[in-house]
Design goal:
Number of strands: 11
Number of helices: 7
Oligomer: single chain
Helix content: 25-40%
Strand order of the largest sheet: 4-3-2-1-10-11
CATH superfamily: Metallo-dependent phosphatases
Shape: globular
Order of helices and strands: EHEHEHEEEHHHHEEEEE
Length: about 240
């Protein structure tokens, strides 16, 4: 049996090839009799302004998730920094289960912490402040009360500003803070951490409090088509190809 993890697909109308790859991937998973569950660790969509509006062309992806859960495969979703407004209506429509921002599971006997990964990038102070603001329930309530065109405009503006800041920031600031990683794993008492967000796929061997530990980073899809496959034998990072 196996469990698979993906993150950072950033599906958007401008890239129908990525949507098609995702739909193809989900169809293949429904045919895999060894697959127990699929975990989507955030940023499935480039932007999500509320469950009452599905971006053009994204209904195909939403329906594909629903078809996968209908086939008997459990799908778990964790919010990313792009799609943190996915809510209970989306979960009901797709049949997926929403996870908290920190989630510990026993992955074939190994206590494993799942995260999107942005909470580990504590050197990016501006982003952490922004995250605190948009995750505030009052801010979300006010944002969701706006019209769809207003929300789209706000999301587009935020995306442009984010892209500009990304170009200006040093590479190391956008990566995880190692002390934060260590303290987080100690707090949750896990020897293994799986996350995305940084688009830097790798399996890092660590030593925490004198014991071996592991940090597994998922890559994105546009550049890497990254999938983590875990079983009793361990975890392996695989790469998809669109052709």
């Amino acid at each position: 049996m196996s469990t698979k993890f993906i993150a950072d697909l950033h599906l958007r109308p401008e890239q129908p090839d990525m949507v098609a790859l995702f739909v193809k991937f989900l169809h293949q998973q429904s045919q895999d009799s060894n697959l127990e569950a699929l975990y989507i660790l955030g940023d499935l969509f480039e932007a999500w302004i509320g469950d009452d509006f599905v971006p053009p062309g994204m209904d195909i992806a939403v329906n594909a998730i629903s078809q996968l859960t209908d086939s008997g495969i459990e799908v778990y979703f964790m919010h990313g920094n792009r799609d943190f407004l996915i809510g209970k209506d989306f979960a009901a429509q797709t049949g997926c289960q929403l996870l908290p921002e920190y989630h510990v599971m026993h992955l074939y006997g190994t206590p494993t912490l799942l995260m999107h990964g942005d909470l580990l990038c504590t050197d990016d102070v501006d982003y952490m402040n922004f995250r605190y603001m948009v995750r505030n329930p009052q801010w979300q309530k006010e944002f969701l009360s706006k019209s769809v065109p207003e929300r789209i405009a706000i999301a587009q503006s935020a995306r442009q500003e984010s892209q500009q800041k990304t170009q200006q920031l040093a590479s190391e600031i956008m990566d995880v803070n190692q002390d934060t990683v260590t303290q987080t794993m100690i707090k949750w008492q896990v020897p293994q951490l799986i996350h995305g967000h940084t688009h830097r796929p790798a399996i890092h061997e660590l030593t925490i409090e004198g014991s071996p530990a592991k940090r597994i980073v998922l890559g994105d899809w546009y550049e890497q088509g990254s999938v983590l496959v875990c079983s009793q034998q361990g975890c392996v990072l695989e790469t998809l190809h669109s052709n």
